[in-house]
Amino acid sequence: GGHFAAKVADEMGVRGVVCLGYPFLLPHNQEPFDISHLFVLKSPTIIIQGSHDPYGKEGTINENAISSTATMHWLPKADHDLHPVEGCNRTYDENILEAMEKVAEFLDFLDN
């Protein structure tokens, strides 16, 4: 969902893109997914990613290479579906609440 939305956002003229979990890597072989569109993205975008997401963990993504119109927000110790990893003291509800707060801030930014 988020990969395709970000890929076509500029040509579709959308006001913004929200990605909840982004496939930066193919998880089984850890080969990079084609994310070249993120380097030139003009549409405002927020990517909310779990820090333990097998599709792209925190520290494995070069955030400086991504367009300045895109913002990354990392959910600590969360997976691709934003579920907390085993042993984490956060709950799924807390992760979803934090993600939705970031989405609301992003939508407010788009309205200004």
Structural account:
The protein is of the alpha/beta class and 112 residues long. The chain has a single domain (2-111), classed as Rossmann fold (3-Layer(aba) Sandwich). The protein contains 3 helices and 5 strands. It has helices spanning 2-12, 36-40, 92-111; strands spanning 17-20, 25-26, 31-32, 45-50, 70-75. The strands form 2 sheets. The protein has a 3-stranded parallel β-sheet, with helices on both faces. It is globular and about 40 Å long. It starts with a helix and ends with a helix.
Summarize this structure briefly.
This protein is an alpha/beta fold and 112 residues long. The protein has three helices and five strands. It has helices at residues 2-12, 36-40, 92-111, and strands at residues 17-20, 25-26, 31-32, 45-50, 70-75.
Question: Which class in CATH terms?
Answer: Alpha Beta
Query: What topology, given as strand order, has the largest sheet?
Result: 1-4-5
Question: In total, how many domains does the architecture comprise?
Answer: 1
CATH architecture: 3-Layer(aba) Sandwich
Q: Please describe the biggest sheet, giving its number of strands, its sense, and whether it closes into a barrel.
A: 3 strands, parallel
DSSP helix count? 3
| Coarse morphology | globular
